[in-house]
Amino acid sequence: MKKTIRFISFAMLSAAVAAFAVSCNHEPEVTGEGNVTFVISPEGGNAVTKATTAVISGSKESQMTDVVVLAFRNNVLAAAPVTGTSSVTMTLPYGTYDIYAVANTGGFTGGGLKTAAQWAAVTSPSSITSIPVPYADYNDGTDFIQIGHKSVDVNAASVSESISTTRLVSRIRFQSIKNSMPEGIGTLTLQRIFLCNVAAGSVTLGEDVSSATTEWYNPFGRPKDNVGNDNATIDGSTYVADNAALTYKAVSNVIATGATAGSSGSPLALFYPYPNNHTNFSAEAWKGQHTPVAQATCICVAGTVSGQGGTKTYYWTFKMPNGLEVNKSYDVNLTITKLGADEPGEMKDGVVSVSVVPAEWGAGSNVTEIL
Q1: d(C-alpha 313, C-alpha 217), whole Å
Q2: What does 141-162 look like in DSSP terms, one character per residue?
Q3: How far apart are CA 361 and CA 82, in angstroms?
Q4: Average pLDDT over residues 351-366
Q5: Which of 206, 208, 300, 306 could anchor a disulfide with 317, C-beta 3.0 to 4.6 Å?
Q6: Which pLDDT tens digit goes with each residue over 295-326?
Q7: Is 154 in contact with 94 (CB distance < 8 Å)?
């Protein structure tokens, strides 16, 4: 029995000595602060901070008028939000942070999504992703709201981190139209190209905008306030497209038989709708209705054909076949083979051939839009 007691006591003493040795050799926890510089840019490219004069152009796609950066640790706001253009610096204690960058919201001004005091009141990442973003008010063709997120380790006095942002809209580059109608039909003159059934309303920064909206712009080729009026076809003057800066383009190209207007380097139009995951379309769905119907986003080309029988306006309407995804670009090329429909809400079979090529939307495109 005595031997057993001595053995236990020796074991306990050995453990105590080992623990003491470990505590003596333990490295102290590193503490301090780091000045962290965040460089914000659109996914795949560099930010454009100098204002551009065009309403919509490739440089506008990457423009950053302002950016608000927020740092969270353990889902709690760790420091006061900071604002700048494409590069901002904040001081943070050593540790790991979730960094959110929100661009083109008006910064700390009262005219943006939030004032400085309201940004400071953001308490968690979910408070950011629940911020509503109205399509009409903030994606108006001057710049595009963007959001980015990154986990960052601050472990030195000076740290530099890059954060990529993505836009909330999709991009449609309507590149070209070819006239392949038979000889003798007449002269084709393009007048306008516009989007129909555009998902609109308010969505949030963290929401699946493809299915979040309950409001629709340019339903079946009519302004939303005239959806039940068969005669209210969008013409750019009497009946103006909803959010026309992003959904409508006046053109005046004369295309001879066999000729093409526009190209990949000089597209006829650039459109920026909210994403839309609907792929169905029915011309009958809107007739007699006074409220828009959730359907696929479509593109309508309006033009006149002048021949022996006089001049008449036709509409060539086709849908985006697989919907529209957030921050994705779509290159569209159209071939007109026959006369179109009498109004934009009708999708006539066999009159066009359409090529739609989706691609990831990186940097702003270096293209020249035909004006």
Answers
A1: 23
A2: SS---EEEEEEEEE-SSEEEEE
A3: 27
A4: 76
A5: 300
A6: 899 999 999 999 877 899 999 999 999 999 88
A7: yes
* Distance in angstroms (rounded) separating the CA atoms of residues 222 and 286: 10
Q: How far apart are CA 110 and CA 5, in angstroms?
A: 77
Reported as a pLDDT band with limits 50, 70 and 90, residue 47 is low
Stated pTM of the model: 0.82
pLDDT of residue 6: 42
Query: What one-character DSSP code corresponds to residue 27?
Result: P
Say if residues 304 and 191 touch (Cβ distance below 8 Å): yes
Classify the C-alpha dihedral 269-273-277-278 as positive or negative: negative
Tell me the sheet residues that pair with 282. Answer: none
User: Alpha carbon of 216 to those of 44, 97, 225: distances in Å?
Assistant: 30, 38, 10
Which range is most confident: 213-217, 226-230, 349-353? Answer: 349-353
Which residues lie closer than 8 Å to 61 by C-beta, 6 or more apart?
A: 42, 144, 167, 171, 361, 363, 364, 365
Structure tokens at 4: 């057993």
Q: 153 has which bridge partners?
A: 96
Inter-CA distances, 236 with 21, 173, 218, 219, 233, Å: 82, 20, 12, 15, 9
The encoded tokens of residue 118 equal: 């309201």
Mean pLDDT of 224-239: 89
Q: Is residue 38 classed as helix, strand or coil in its secondary structure?
A: strand
Token pair 């060539």 in the structure block, residue: 316
Strand-pairing partners, residue 83, are 68
Confidence check: pLDDT of 20 > 50? no
Of the candidates 322, 312, 347, 351, the residue with the CA atom closest to the CA atom of residue 334: 351
The answer, yes or no, to whether residue 111 has pLDDT greater than 50, is yes
Query: Side chain identity at 55, as an amino acid letter?
Result: V
Look up residue 188 and give its two tokens: 């084709």
What was the pLDDT predicted at 51?
40
Residues near 16 by beta carbon (within 8 Å), at least 6 away in sequence: none
* CA distance linking residue 371 with residue 89, whole number of Å: 40
